[in-house]
Amino acid sequence: MTAVLMGALLAFLIFAWDKASGLGAEERREIGILKAIGWETSDVILMRFWEGMVVSLSSFLAGLLLAYVHVFFTSAILFEPVLKGWAVLYPRFNPVPFVDASQVAALFFLTVLPYTISTLIPSWRSATVDPDSVMRT
């Protein structure tokens, strides 16, 4: 379980780092075009903020829903052998549906907010560059 958790955390960190390290040429060109047609830097940053928020929030809610279905409707069929161990006679495994709001909030603040913030920094850097120079590259 720890190895799976570390793998998931590493994948999230790599994804967030890739997003925060910079925008691709196509995204920079898109921002340059928006700036050229009259968008302000704050408009571009706000648009990228909402784009990042929609992506991260929808994936968070989809993951939460899929996890709920996996644990409470299929009795955690993927994790069942790990949780039960190597016993020959398995006891019945029927988890009781319960969702702790503080745990959901902690997951939200540890996943959605860092991803959304990591989309703002490269957007700000690209939005402050001259649109003509961005569209030429």
Which terms would index this structure?
137 residues; mainly alpha; 6 helices
Order of helices and strands: HHHHHH
Enumerate how many helices there are, as a single number. 6
Q: Tell me the β content.
A: under 5%
What is the distance, rounded to the nearest whole angstrom, between the alpha carbons of the first and last residues? 46 Å
Notes on the structure:
The chain is mainly alpha-helical and 137 residues long. It has helices spanning 2-21, 25-36, 41-72, 80-84, 101-127, 131-136. Helix 1 (2-21) packs parallel to helix 5 (101-127) and helix 3 (41-72) packs antiparallel against helix 5. The longest helix is centred in the middle third of the chain and has 32 residues, at 41-72. The radius of gyration is 21 Å and the shape is elongated. It starts with a helix and ends with a helix. The mean pLDDT is 82.
Task: Summarize this structure briefly.
This protein is an all-alpha fold and 137 residues long. 74% of the residues lie in helices and 0% in strands.
What is the element layout, followed by pairings?
Elements: H1 2-21, H2 25-36, H3 41-72, H4 80-84, H5 101-127, H6 131-136
Helix pairs in contact: 1-5, 3-5
